[in-house]
Design goal:
kinase activity, PTS_IIA_glucitol/sorbitol_sf, 14% helix, eight-stranded mixed beta barrel, 39% strand, M1 Pyruvate Kinase, Domain 3, mainly beta
Amino acid sequence: MMMTETKATVTAIGKQALGHADPMVVLFGEEATDEIASIAVIQRFSDKAAQAQLTMAQGDQVQINDDRYTVTYVGRAASANLQTLGHVALVFTDKLAGDRLQNALYLAPLDGALQMPEFTVGTPLVYIHQG
């Protein structure tokens, strides 16, 4: 079983990106419009070719700072949007009831990780896919 790690770094945080009631963070690549950038956390992938191959599946992990999260659900559009736009919504919840966002990764904390990680400019993100 091969594991791939695709790395990105937070380069900007929109004024309305963090701090809402929902345990969710919207990520976008640097091509985001100003309007989108105001509500998003902007990420830059260190390797565009790796980004273009990025596929996430249930059971994969996302590491944010030193905290790791297990992917409990992958929305239908999540991998394609990550590959092309660097866009995905990260939803930090153990509950999968109700309508699920199709552009989202649902994440459950691992090993004492924060329920909701902190995002700052420079925060490292690692998408860990077990293929």
